[in-house]
Amino acid sequence: MEHLRSPKLALAALLVLFLALGNVALMKVGADEKICNMTEQQLEACKPSVSGSDPTPPTTECCNGLKEADLTCLCSYKNSGFLPALGIDPDLAMQLPAKCGITAPTDC
Known about the structure:
- Residues 1-31 form the signal peptide.
- Residues 36-108 form the Bifunctional inhibitor/plant lipid transfer protein/seed storage helical domain.
- The protein is mostly helical.
- It has helices at residues 7-27, 40-46, 60-68, 71-75, 82-85, 90-99, and strands at 34-35, 38-39.
């Protein structure tokens, strides 16, 4: 266990554990379950707007889901490694509320 005393290695191990647990949590989300008050279907509808080098404008389904979402909860993910690990660009994700005509929380 001597190698885990390195702060960088310990942080890397913690990040890998966090990502693994996060992916398991996402796999368990069903159509009726929600993350930050958005269903898996609504989150998937938004993904083309927040990923890739040529994102598409948000769909009506995405914006309707975002209107119901707990934006403060969603904001809590913006600085984590969780979004990039899922192929989501955090900068594009931060622009999504404005593209849907929604005011984001000021502390986001």
